[in-house]
UniProtKB/TrEMBL annotation:
<feature type="binding site">
    <location>
        <begin position="153"/>
        <end position="156"/>
    </location>
    <ligand>
        <name>ATP</name>
    </ligand>
</feature>
<keyword id="KW-0963">Cytoplasm</keyword>
<keyword id="KW-0566">Pantothenate biosynthesis</keyword>
<dbReference type="InterPro" id="IPR014729">
    <property type="entry name" value="Rossmann-like_a/b/a_fold"/>
</dbReference>
<dbReference type="InterPro" id="IPR004821">
    <property type="entry name" value="Cyt_trans-like"/>
</dbReference>
<dbReference type="GO" id="GO:0005524">
    <property type="term" value="F:ATP binding"/>
</dbReference>
<dbReference type="GO" id="GO:0015940">
    <property type="term" value="P:pantothenate biosynthetic process"/>
</dbReference>
<comment type="similarity">
    <text>Belongs to the pantothenate synthetase family.</text>
</comment>
<feature type="binding site">
    <location>
        <position position="159"/>
    </location>
    <ligand>
        <name>(R)-pantoate</name>
    </ligand>
</feature>
<dbReference type="InterPro" id="IPR003721">
    <property type="entry name" value="Pantoate_ligase"/>
</dbReference>
<dbReference type="GO" id="GO:0005829">
    <property type="term" value="C:cytosol"/>
</dbReference>
<comment type="function">
    <text>Catalyzes the condensation of pantoate with beta-alanine in an ATP-dependent reaction via a pantoyl-adenylate intermediate.</text>
</comment>
<dbReference type="Pfam" id="PF02569">
    <property type="entry name" value="Pantoate_ligase"/>
</dbReference>
<keyword id="KW-0436">Ligase</keyword>
<feature type="binding site">
    <location>
        <position position="182"/>
    </location>
    <ligand>
        <name>ATP</name>
    </ligand>
</feature>
<comment type="subunit">
    <text>Homodimer.</text>
</comment>
<keyword id="KW-0067">ATP-binding</keyword>
Length: 294
């Protein structure tokens, strides 16, 4: 791929606000791709989508400390700014916002954005405070970068729904676009945390995709009982010796509330630790409307 000109890097909020204001005064639309860096092909697909939809593309690279729990991997989260910049240049990014934590969070920071419904189940139940940190930093990025649209990956299915709820409830003038999951050739959803996996763990991680495929096939064959699908997915994960299941759930596709029976679009969602590395994956399942109930 031909390397384009280097994006302009801005590391403080006020200059970023001024720079985006210049773009908007010139009549250019702004698309934002929020990331924590360690960019891979999944992130690149988000940048390409933003490039198609907006005149000016901003990529934020910021490992947000407030969405990590005390025993999580904030200090060890992969960081490679030079490689990230090369990826941004190749994909035609115009501006990169790369602040230090201290520029976004004052020492006596005490204001939070907290969505309390869609964020409650799934990852929200096992990672208290995670989505409060996500909402707060995304609200900050929206305020600083003033995008017309923002692109998020569907791999983080709950995060996408939480952000959409926040935007709706707070009347934020931002179109939130969900981009398709990008997968490795063997089906594993691309994630920055995949770098933690050794060859054995990497092979075992395929069980997430297998479990979702089994659930999808069961629905195609007429299974409508949510508990049966959860048991099916749990069994697939249990086949791997280093896999520790956090949850295997079937929830409403919009509200993420638990369902007993598949009657419309639902989300099959998984969180699994493979040799200690936490991975998530999901797939929307929709029964054939022409099938008669079993």
């Amino acid at each position: 791929m031909t390397v384009r000109s280097e994006p302009e890097v801005i590391d403080e909020p006020a200059p970023m606000q001024r720079r985006v204001a210049e773009e908007r005064r010139a009549g250019r639309t702004v698309g934002l791709v929020p990331t924590m860096g360690a960019l891979h092909e999944g992130h690149r697909s988000l940048i390409r989508l933003a490039r198609q939809r907006a005149d000016t593309v901003v990529v934020s690279i910021f490992v947000n400390p407030t969405q990590f729990g005390p025993d999580e991997d904030y200090e060890h989260y992969p960081r490679d700014f030079e490689r990230d910049m090369a990826a941004c240049a190749e994909e035609g990014t115009d501006l990169v916002f790369h602040p230090d934590p201290g520029t976004l969070y004052a020492p006596d920071h005490s204001t939070w954005v907290d969505e309390t419904s869609v964020s409650a189940p799934l990852c929200g139940s096992g990672r208290p405070g995670h989505f409060r940190g996500v909402c707060t930093v995304v609200a900050k990025l929206f305020h600083i970068c003033a995008p017309d649209l923002a692109v998020f990956g569907r791999k983080d299915a709950q995060q996408l729904r939480v952000i959409r709820r926040m935007v709706r409830d707070l009347n934020m003038p931002v179109e939130v676009i969900g981009a398709p999951i990008v997968r490795e050739q063997d089906g594993l959803a691309m994630s920055s945390r995949n770098r933690y996996l050794d060859p054995s763990a990497r092979r075992q991680a395929r069980c997430l995709r297998r479990a979702l495929d089994r659930a999808a096939e069961a629905v195609r064959q007429g299974q409508r009982d949510a508990e049966a699908l959860k048991i099916l997915m749990t069994g697939v994960i249990g086949e791997e010796p280093d896999a520790a299941l956090e949850y295997a759930e079937i929830v409403d596709g919009e509200t993420l509330e638990s369902v007993d029976r598949i009657e419309g679009t639902v989300l099959a969602a998984l969180a699994v630790r493979i040799a200690g590395t936490r991975l998530i994956d999901s797939e929307e399942l929709t029964p054939d409307e022409e099938e008669s109930p079993d």
